[in-house]
């Protein structure tokens, strides 16, 4: 290692909280919450990561209070957690208390699947899936879903109505208020990967001609309305993290900003609405974002938004998420690359996904310079 790892273990103040390190657990859906209720096994899983020095945990995506927020998990069961209802909130309170007892901080990731919810599944199978313009995605998108599944999702449906949009925004606000009531330290909003908020940002899926669609600024209106409603629900001093991405599950090659200027147009309204920190979701944290510069998406995000930014993608591993699905990934210590960028001030936080599934003590091992464990596809199905 050329660089010292210690800067990643320096505190960061975000609004009214102080993270003790810059290592963040990236949100990862686990499907271990039967009926949407996280149990002690979920609390233990997050506590183990907090104990080993993770500065902030962003939970798996949790369904907001709206009937079409969630479909079923991969195995067809309703085991994705929700952020509403007495039982689920009591479960989350235990998760939060255990993480706090281990000295950690934790945000829930507020999630509405939108067009990516499989119709007829989830806790409210009869609810229609929410699509801004009735469009699922491009016919020729590069994705890893079975072709027959994509064919089934492609036919257009009814666009979201004005009252459905208002209901969803209110659902985000109610779930954010519930999260605060059980002690979460801030709110993370999932605005990435082709789910509901992202389909308003993406021109391909947002062809609306009313106030929710149009040019790039107008396409940010739904995301900004969600952020604003969350801000009103949780008050001024509590941090809001917003995740966005260029890539979508419907098309890995999609882009919502082709230049830094376009990115600025997209992010500024979100800053004005109340975002405190951006999570720029990329598959490879060191990948240059735009032609003509080696700066990453997190780097550009920080520069054009003026807000702290988080980098993510492949930290500690030889392969990105998509290419590790079948064969896993070998451990590599690529922290020097991350530290070089961190020292230049490109980003403020480093999110770690699969490495933390493979090893709850990953952050401790990184600090001590100990070897990392490989990531294997079996880790997708384990909660330890
Ligand atoms: C099992 C699994 C589940 C995931 N679920 C979510 C999710 O619920 N929300 C989200 O924003 N990203 C999700 N992701 C993406 C991760 O947060 C992260 O961005 C991605 O894995 C890249 O980081 P890594 O290379 O360190 O794993 C998931 C990733 C994995 C491996």
TrEMBL record:
UniProt-recorded Gene Ontology molecular function terms: FMN binding; oxidoreductase activity
GO annotation, cellular component aspect: cytosol
InterPro entries per record: Aldolase_TIM (IPR013785), OxRdtase_FMN_N (IPR001155), Oye-like (IPR045247)
The NADH:flavin oxidoreductase/NADH oxidase N-terminal domain, residue ranges: 8-369
Superkingdom of this protein's organism: Bacteria
Residues annotated as signal peptide: none
Regions crossing the membrane: none
Protein known as: 12-oxophytodienoate reductase
